[in-house]
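Review form for a predicted model. The reviewer records the input and the model, then writes brief findings.
Reviewer: anonymous (R2)
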Amino acid sequence: MTTDTQPSLSPEQNAYLRERSDWMGAYLVLHAWGVIALAMAFFIAWPNPLSFIVAVVVIGGRQLGLAILMHDAAHRALFKNTRLNDTVGAFLCGWPVGASLTLYRPYHLSHHRHTQQKEDPDLILSAPFPISSSSFWRKMRRDILGITGYQRRMEFFRMEMGDAPSRLQRWKNLFQAEKYFALTNLLIFGVTAAAGVWWAYWALWLLPLLTWYQVISRIRNIAEHAVVGNNDDRLRNTRTTLTNWGMRMVLAPYWVNYHLEHHLFVFTPCWKLPAAHRMLIEQGFGPRMELTQGYRAVLRKAVSKPHDDDAGNGKQRGQSNALI
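Model under review:
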């Protein structure tokens, strides 16, 4: 069991951190899709290798942003209105990037109940670290080449088809599970086709989802729980990575880098996590918290094993569908 360390909040602070906003939730979802649309338009207007790379990085970052907003919806923190929270969180945030809010919520709440303990379903993501640099770069190559993204989808397909007694039933199970991902992606394809740039779905939506999205999801997973201090201390078994706005834009959208604060105050909307961080520092908890300056410093700690050891890598790939 983790220790009961919990920073105390005044009634006013507690009320502030708990307060959700339908307007802010709507803004964040529109912001994510607006940035994706602008990045697509940027490459379409100025097509060249550099603008393509910029578009892929920005779009992949906002695809992760959609997953993060779905994560907020899983905590019912995206919108104050519960029905709006679950509908928008599923249809506009989760489904387009291949994630199910319904399936994710119980899985993720179990991660919060058992953080870094043997019952934690996400423990397999952090347990292998530290790893060697050669092992890390092999993973990065698979991610950027789309191999990880492809393997994840195939793993989802196998899980969703299950052990039904007939081939027809297995395909029915797959259709039932994947119909919303297919529907939302068909809508995205329809919008690009109607705009006369049908190819943009493949090059500027699906490609980032299979490549850059995988890269930054891995780095974010490493930063949150790998090589942390004390797995039994709530202030040390989760990390907050302090970084600049540029890194947040491409690697840690919507304040996901404040992960320790999120674990301490799970009811808090993502846009209030910086305020939660300031409250903790003001109460003098800073020296006891797992804080790291920048993702480069995190990776130096996580990629510090002297010998190459990729044992369990297949398992990690299969289980790396955890989003946040």
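Findings: Residues 6 and 253 are 26 Å apart (CA to CA).
Further findings: The chain has one domain: 11-319.
Recommendation: see findings above.
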